[in-house]
Design brief:
alpha+beta, three-stranded antiparallel beta sheet, 12 strands, 47% helix, 17% strand, elongated
């Protein structure tokens, strides 16, 4: 491809191995961060996605079956829900998320694969086209055109192409939490056994003191399953029990660090613990979910369709319903929207988690609550045309009758006038 330059490079989070949190290596192993990300990922995973084609001539939903199939089943390994959840998780951990659109020989999308890489470089060829060079954990490298990459970003500030990673503000907070957790673990580990101090009454060399100490530990500090043990007093030393330490770190430091992490992810304890009410979820939905939905709409539309197809009205729409956690009274209030044909019965039933019914996708009117489909619309139009035609015929008939009556009245008037004109002549003759 004759790449001439590498214009930018970006290091992503590299999550390797298992075990406790290692600062600077991973964020997802921390329970606080994972709890902050999970509600957002679950909410985005429940989005409904449709392909809309709307212009002056038509308005169709999912007109192309190949696009519909890709949106519903992006690849053989995951569904649309899992793809969105994985991309949102990568977005919150790295402020960047990538997915590759695989196309056939005709340029139509056939699959979408997420790209969990560890390093990204921007390349440019001699024709000015932008490519991304992805490096994976296995050190394998993949170069793909940017026009086929769905790229989600947040905290888009310093870099021209990538979002600013969250490592710098989060790692100091995680270090505080990790230090407190380590101190608690060490304190619990040190207090598992009783600690004893042997005070020797005479001066012994190091070998004798070690021997006596080991004998005491082996005889009285180890459980062998022999039942109750009885000890005896040694004249060479006295025993002194060291009291256990019940030190606990100050909880305020941990709480402050956790609160700052929650603020960083624009969430709160009610959202994380699923104890929120309707108003709290609506606020979270408006502040966190809807901006990401808009970014998904724009990015999928921009990468799925050419400028000519977008000009023709093609777009990808992710639909987020903030009524999922609404109260029953709020959901029942939407029944008036069904009566006015603004919602279909099946859409209203979906708010309650109830399955669809037959002919439930047909809008209803409040007048007779009869289904309004295309045939009935055509029949209503024909009846209206017939009524107009009949009315015009009646008007024309009345007009003809009026003309006929006017004509008869005119003839009558002419005859009466003629009679009046002839009557004086007759009178003169008689005189």
């Amino acid at each position: 491809m004759n790449f001439q330059s590498s214009t930018s490079s970006f290091e992503l989070l590299n999550d390797e191995g298992d075990g406790q949190l290692t600062l600077g290596d991973t964020l997802f192993k921390n329970d606080v961060i994972r709890a902050c990300i999970r509600p957002k990922a679950n909410a985005i995973g429940k989005l409904k996605v449709t392909h809309v084609r709307e212009n002056n001539r038509e308005c169709k939903i999912n007109p192309d079956p190949w696009i519909y199939n890709v949106l519903q089943e992006p690849n053989p390994f995951m569904s649309r829900q899992l793809l969105l959840e994985k991309m949102v998780t990568q977005l919150d951990l790295n402020s960047n998320a990538f997915a590759f659109i695989k196309r056939n020989d005709f340029g139509y999308p056939t699959a979408i694969f997420p790209i969990p890489c560890t390093k990204v470089e921007v390349l440019e060829n001699n024709q000015g086209l932008i490519f991304l060079k992805f490096t994976f954990k296995t050190k394998n490298v993949l170069i793909l055109p940017y026009s086929d990459i769905i790229h989600l970003r947040k905290d888009f500030n310093s870099n021209d192409l990538f979002g600013t990673p969250p490592y710098d503000p989060l790692l100091p907070l995680l270090e505080v939490i990790d230090s407190v957790d380590d101190s608690i673990v060490n304190n619990v580990s040190n207090n598992r056994f009783m600690n004893w101090l042997l005070n020797f009454k005479e001066v012994l060399d190091q070998e004798d003191m070690t021997k006596n100490t080991n004998e005491f530990v082996n005889n009285y500090m180890k459980y062998t399953g022999d039942g109750v043990k009885a000890g005896f007093s040694e004249p060479t030393y006295t025993l002194q029990q060291v009291p256990a330490s019940n030190y606990a770190p100050e909880p305020q430091r941990t709480n402050d660090a956790i609160r700052r992490i929650l603020m960083f992810f624009n969430t709160n304890e009610n959202i994380v613990q699923s104890t929120f009410n309707e108003d709290q979820w609506n606020s979270y939905n408006e502040a966190v979910i809807n901006p990401l939905v808009i970014q998904l709409n724009n990015e999928f539309t921009r990468k799925f369709f050419t400028p000519a197809e977008r000009k023709n009205g093609n777009r990808i729409v992710f639909e987020a319903s903030n009524l999922e956690f609404a109260s029953t009274a709020t959901k029942l209030a939407f029944s008036i929207m069904v009566e006015r044909a603004s919602l279909t019965p099946n859409e209203w039933r979906a708010l309650f988690g109830i399955g669809p019914i037959q002919r439930g996708d047909v809008p209803l009117l409040k007048t007779d609550t009869a289904p309004i489909d295309q045939k009935e619309r055509d029949r209503e139009f024909e009846l209206r045309v017939e009524r107009e035609k009949k009315r015009e015929e009646e008007i024309e008939k009345c007009k003809q009758e009026c003309l006929e009556e006017c004509k008869q009245f005119k003839e009558f008037c002419m005859e009466e006038r003629k009679k009046l004109l002839e009557k004086p002549e007759t009178d003169d003759k008689n005189n």
